[in-house]
Specification:
395 residues; mainly alpha; Amino acid/polyamine transporter I; globular
């Protein structure tokens, strides 16, 4: 059984990921110093999100998580769309995450974008081989990597803060106040993971007592880390593709850059391995009649996206926004399910989270087409020859 401390660590580990090594600087470029307000808003949104997910996990324990909540509340079509949003979000997001790790490799060895693409392809290949061999990154290793990342973020922020420039805080909103919403769509990628609470219920001796404590502890850690990182990023000129390395170098010099690059690679491979493994299991449930391993379409899509990334005709920012749009759609359906399935304070938390997520969702612009087209495609009427086949939705 998990202790409250371990559950807190799992929460933190679920939220932290390689996105925080890149996205803070991207948000600062989108909205300037006003991006800090996007951080504050998303941290505030994390509270009702986590509360609602914890309540759903306690009252509706099901290993299927968000897709199961959608099925219980709205039926198989909603569950199917939710499952495929997650699946395609992972497939599209993996090359983006791999490129983030690739940028740090290029920084470490002194290469350019070509080096980053080659490193990204190598990391994706490692993940595919590992999953084909049925190897999994252990939860303990993921926790260790997340703990090291948390420590690195704290060190980077504290080391860089004294070197920040007050001039970089003016003008506060150089791109207008609406840019805060755009920055929030970028940062959403670093706030996924609060649904992890719904999967911890079976491993806790007293979920009703332990989950709220774990939630409060995790939120405290995330608030300190993210706000410190946001302030340090705004204060330091981090216009490169390796902003966290820039922060480390500002306070610790060249060794800080090397340490950051090495950790970025380990964290990227670990997170991709975990998500690809989960996506593989989900693919088997969503497409039980498929005769190909899910690793094949994943590899083909990754290769197809790496080509335009290598040619610089597609940027990481676009892939991150497409991925975030798909995952935000998952969260919206899950919170809508919470409004229907929960009661009392938990239902209010779900309603607040749903309203806030819809506001963030509106800022995705044309990227709203990503979840819309996926939902349409997976719920089209099947050919008559396939109608008698069992149609299983997400677990």
């Amino acid at each position: 059984m998990l202790s409250t401390r371990s559950a807190t660590a799992l929460y933190v580990g679920a939220v932290l990921g390689p996105g925080v090594t890149y996205l803070p600087a991207l948000a600062a470029r989108e909205a300037g110093p006003a991006s800090l307000l996007a951080w504050v808003g998303l941290l505030a949104l994390s509270v009702p999100l986590a509360v609602a997910f914890a309540a759903l996990g306690i009252r509706h324990p099901d290993a299927g998580g968000t897709a199961s909540y959608a099925r219980t509340a709205f039926g198989p079509r909603a569950a199917r769309a939710t499952g495929w949003w997650f699946l395609i979000g992972v497939a599209v997001g993996a090359p983006a995450v791999a490129m983030i790790g690739g940028f740090y490799v290029a920084e470490l060895v002194g290469g350019g974008r070509e080096t980053a693409v080659v490193a990204a392809a190598a990391m994706i290949a490692v993940v595919i081989v590992a999953n084909a061999a049925s190897l999994r990154t252990t939860a303990r290793l993921q926790l260790v990597l997340a703990a090291v990342l948390a420590g690195l973020l704290l060190v980077a922020s504290l080391a860089a803060l004294p070197h920040g420039s007050a001039e970089r805080w003016t003008p506060f909103a150089p791109h207008g106040w609406a840019a805060i919403g755009t920055a929030a769509t970028v940062l959403m990628f670093s706030f996924f993971g609060w649904e992890a609470g719904s999967h911890l219920v079976g491993d806790l001796k007293d979920p009703r007592r332990q989950l709220p404590r774990a939630l409060a502890g995790a939120l405290a850690v995330i608030v300190v880390l993210y706000l410190g990182l946001a302030v340090a990023t705004i204060g330091i000129d981090t216009s490169s593709d390796v902003p966290l390395a820039d922060l480390m170098a500002a306070g610790l010099g060249a060794p800080g850059r090397t340490i950051t690059a090495g950790l970025a690679v380990l964290l990227t491979v670990g997170v991709m391995n975990t998500y690809v493994a989960a996506a593989g299991r989900l693919f088997g449930t969503l497409a039980p009649q498929a005769r190909v391993t899910p690793l094949l379409p994943f590899a083909l899509l990754a290769a197809g996206l790496l080509v335009p990334l290598a040619l610089d005709s597609l940027d990481v920012d676009a892939l991150m926004k497409a991925t975030s749009a798909a995952f935000v759609a998952v969260y919206i359906v899950a919170m809508a399910a919470g409004v229907r399935l929960l009661d009392g304070g938990a239902r209010i938390a779900a309603a607040i989270a749903l309203a806030a997520m819809l506001v963030v969702f509106a800022f995705f612009g044309t990227y709203l087409l990503v979840p819309a087209l996926i939902a349409l495609a997976v719920n089209l009427p099947r050919p008559r020859a396939l109608r008698r086949m069992p149609q299983t939705v997400a677990p």
